[in-house]
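Sample pair:
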Amino acid sequence: MTYLLEKSMALRERFNEQLREAMRAKDQRRVSTLRMVLAALKDKDIAARTETSREGVPDDEVLSLLAKMIKQREESAAAFESGGRAELAASERAEIGIIREFMPKQMSPEEARAAAQSVIAELGASSMKDMGKVMAALKERYAGQMDFSRASGTVKELLNAK
């Protein structure tokens, strides 16, 4: 657990350092995007607080938050493009690029399939009843590296083939 907190703090420090650099460079797009990420992270930290714990959320949840933010922006960009608002779509895509800098390298579909096969074999999953366990293990091990909506389809396919 300590490792996750240290790693999480390093990611938070990286956000703050990048924000300071963007402010020095007067890069308004980057400043606003990083402030938005830090605000969302702070909201998540506040929601996760308990009577006994005031610690921030771990890295896997931070990465999940970043993935969610990217997905929201992709959907917005598509909506803007279909509405003929190319400048707003470009703005959303610029934000996606900034947020992706903090994400680990994304797995290719082949790598994701191999990871799913490995976890299924390791857990001895044999039916759709085991899907929850498989997805939980994938999320724990590959947070931020895998598109879990696609992985879900792959896991279903693999479990139905058994």
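Residues 1-8 have pLDDT under 50 and may be disordered.
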